[in-house]
């Protein structure tokens, strides 16, 4: 890189990491302040470990992310296989358009739309509060599904069509050919989809905000509630722990091989929209 | 012959079984909820048809201080225009910052490229509420930035609670979403096309205008979408960095939701959705035309 390129890269990195550096530093602050550092202490980490509401939120987040990512991976993989084989062009393009909707729509619209439906259906059955773990799980599966489908579908298209046919010629039933031949071929796509669904679910705030009731609180919702009151360095301690977990995961995946670099990149592709970047 | 038929039958059965759960799910939880937005937007509390909510969006007025006196403005239209303005500014800044960076990145060694891309993604994995809050402590009047400026005897700046603060927050949160699609398009660009343009007598500016820019356009478009849509609909950034003063369309929806005015919340969401749909279609068409030309 030329010096000017290096300089610009450094500036951009400072911009991206300044707030993160600040929260790392202030998580060790002795006092309650988030802008004046008075001395090193692990006080806020101890506070964090004693905060049972936050610990529960971490557990809830993991339970939700594991269930949502598993359900959406199984259903999304099956859907990709189905869409790939679909010969009816209209049906196919309709399905693809519908799949794109949650990725293009702002999260707030997805959240509001699901919430309205849950509330309406809940009222039909005379329920007072219709938002709970179930509605959140449905919402998370819904916004994860398109990302799984868009990871698996290209792998199916890249697969050599002769492979499953050869398997069947050699005496496999279609189901057996699918399990023994097609699944291993598309496995990298399934794995990336799973990782992506998991991280999207972990990190989601907006859709969860509208579809969670008072009974089930995830970590992003807990953080939101924390920032409504005076924030102490305890929240920064939490962010610091999250940061090191992410760093460890990234280093592990990088060490696992050059091939995985691409997977990590895909797995946190613009949460925002468009799982598939346009072809050049 | 008979065997092939039964194998085919079995395959299409598998296909149907595979596709059925998702089709039902997509209908119930993607399509139907959107219909509910329209349904709530056009009904009153007793679920009778009304255009009241939509009219309210366009006609509600309020008084704002304007110099010496006050001025009557259309509340929600103004909020909408303000969201659009801040989102467009943020998107433009993101594009200006990300474009040269993505281009420089493709020129770096492969190892450097993968390290830098990983670095860019780290902030995306961190909770955006906490990152936004950290910006609040930086930009506050008694915050870290003013502390630094004070140490250097450079005076003080007042940023928090201004539109600039909201824009800084949006740029910070969504910059990686602009860098990644640009980079992935530029990395695929054929180096030989650029060389050919130089060989054929183009100067630097000509190469950029005639070769690099058109080839990177799909990435630009996808980056714009990825930054514009979340920034126009955000409601946390404006609450924390705008000190609640810069009410955006996302804040309006969230506020009505909290106040349990679901029908009006749906009406605002409905208007937002329609405008975005039209806007995106327009952008896509303009880009297609340019690529074709």
Helix content of chain A: over 70%
The level 1 CATH classification of chain B is Mainly Alpha
**Which CATH class of chain A?**
Mainly Alpha
- What percentage of the residues of chain A does DSSP assign to strands (E)? under 5%
- Please count the helical segments of chain B: 12
Query: How big a fraction of the residues of chain B is strand?
Result: under 5%
- Summing up helix and strand content along with how strands pair, one would put the structural category of chain A as mainly alpha
Number of domains of chain B: 1
What do we call the CATH topology of chain B? MetI-like fold
- Backbone shape of chain A: globular
Q: What is the first-to-last residue Cα distance of chain B? A: 52 Å
Cα gyration radius of chain B (Å): 25 Å
Based on CA atoms alone, the radius of gyration of chain A comes out at: 22 Å
Shape of chain B: globular
Largest interface: A-B, 92 and 100 residues
How are strands sequenced across the largest beta sheet of chain B? 1-2
CATH architecture of chain A: Orthogonal Bundle
Please tell me about this protein's structure.
The complex is a heterodimer of chains A (280) and B (293). With 280 residues, chain A is an all-alpha fold. Chain A has helices spanning 3-26, 43-50, 52-85, 89-104, 107-124, 133-158, 162-169, 174-203, 206-211, 219-228, 233-255, 258-267. Chain A has a single domain (52-267), classed as MetI-like (MetI-like fold, Orthogonal Bundle), CATH 1.10.3720.10. The radius of gyration of chain A is 22 Å and the shape is globular. The two termini of chain A are 25 Å apart. Residues 260-280 of chain A have low confidence and may be disordered. Chain B is mainly α and 293 residues long. Chain B has helices at 2-41, 52-59, 75-107, 110-125, 128-139, 144-151, 163-186, 191-199, 204-232, 236-241, 249-258, 262-292, and strands at 61-66, 69-74. The radius of gyration of chain B is 25 Å and the shape is globular. The relative contact order of chain B is 0.12. The chains are: A mainly alpha (280), B mainly alpha (293).
């Amino acid at each position: 890189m030329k010096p000017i390129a290096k300089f610009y890269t450094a500036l951009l990195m400072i911009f991206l990491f300044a707030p993160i550096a600040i929260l790392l530093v202030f998580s060790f602050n002795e006092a309650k302040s988030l802008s004046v550092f008075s001395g090193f202490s692990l006080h806020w980490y101890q506070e964090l470990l004693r905060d049972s509401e936050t610990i529960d939120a971490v557990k809830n987040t993991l339970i939700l992310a594991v269930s949502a990512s598993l359900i959406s991976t199984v259903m999304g993989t099956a859907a990709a296989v189905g869409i790939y084989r679909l010969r009816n062009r209209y049906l196919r393009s309709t399905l693809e358009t519908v799949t794109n909707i949650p990725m293009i729509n702002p999260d707030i619209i997805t959240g509001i739309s699901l919430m309205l439906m849950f509330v309406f259906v809940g009222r039909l059955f005379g329920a007072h509060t219709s938002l709970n773990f179930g509605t959140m799980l449905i919402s998370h599966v819904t916004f994860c599904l398109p990302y799984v489908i868009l990871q698996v579908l290209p792998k199916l298209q890249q697969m050599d069509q002769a492979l499953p046919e050869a398997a069947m010629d050699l005496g496999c039933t279609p189901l057996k050919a699918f399990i023994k031949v097609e699944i291993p071929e598309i496995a990298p796509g399934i794995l990336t989809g799973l990782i992506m669904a998991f991280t999207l679910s972990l990190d989601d705030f907006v859709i969860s905000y509208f579809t969670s009731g008072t009974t089930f609180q995830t970590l992003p919702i807990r953080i939101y509630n924390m920032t409504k009151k005076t924030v102490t360095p305890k929240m920064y301690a939490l962010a610091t722990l999250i940061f090191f977990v992410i760093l460890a995961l990234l280093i592990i995946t990088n060490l696992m091989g050059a091939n995985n670099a691409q997977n990590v990149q895909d797995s946190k592709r613009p949460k925002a929209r468009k799982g598939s970047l346009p072809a050049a | 012959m008979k065997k092939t038929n039964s194998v085919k039958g079995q395959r299409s059965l598998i296909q149907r079984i595979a596709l059925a759960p998702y089709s039902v799910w997509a209908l119930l939880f993607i399509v139907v909820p959107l219909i509910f937005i329209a349904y709530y937007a056009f009904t009153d509390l007793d679920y009778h048809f009304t255009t009241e909510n939509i009219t309210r969006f366009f006609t509600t007025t309020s008084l704002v201080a304007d110099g010496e006196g006050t001025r009557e403005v259309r509340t929600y239209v103004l909020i909408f225009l303000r969201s659009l303005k801040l989102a467009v500014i943020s998107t433009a800044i993101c594009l200006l910052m990300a474009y040269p960076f993505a281009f420089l990145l493709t020129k770096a060694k492969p190892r450097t490229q993968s390290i830098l891309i990983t670095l860019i993604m780290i902030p995306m994995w961190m909770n955006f509420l906490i990152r936004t809050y950290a910006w609040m402590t930086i930009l506050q009047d008694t915050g870290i930035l003013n502390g630094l400026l004070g140490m250097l005897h450079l005076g003080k700046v007042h940023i928090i609670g201004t539109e600039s603060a909201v824009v800084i927050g949006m740029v910070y949160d969504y910059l990686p979403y602009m860098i990644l699609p640009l980079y992935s398009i530029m990395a695929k660009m054929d180096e030989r096309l650029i060389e050919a343009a130089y060989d054929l007598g183009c100067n630097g500016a000509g190469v950029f205008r005639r070769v690099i820019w058109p080839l990177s356009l799909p990435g630009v478009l996808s980056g714009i979408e990825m930054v514009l849509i979340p920034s126009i609909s955000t409601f946390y950034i404006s609450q924390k960095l705008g000190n609640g003063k810069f009410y955006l369309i996302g804040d309006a929806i969230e506020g009505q939701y909290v106040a349990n005015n679901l029908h009006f919340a749906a009406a605002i969401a409905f208007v937002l959705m329609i405008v975005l749909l039209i806007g995106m279609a327009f952008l896509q068409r303009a880009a297609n035309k340019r690529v074709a030309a």
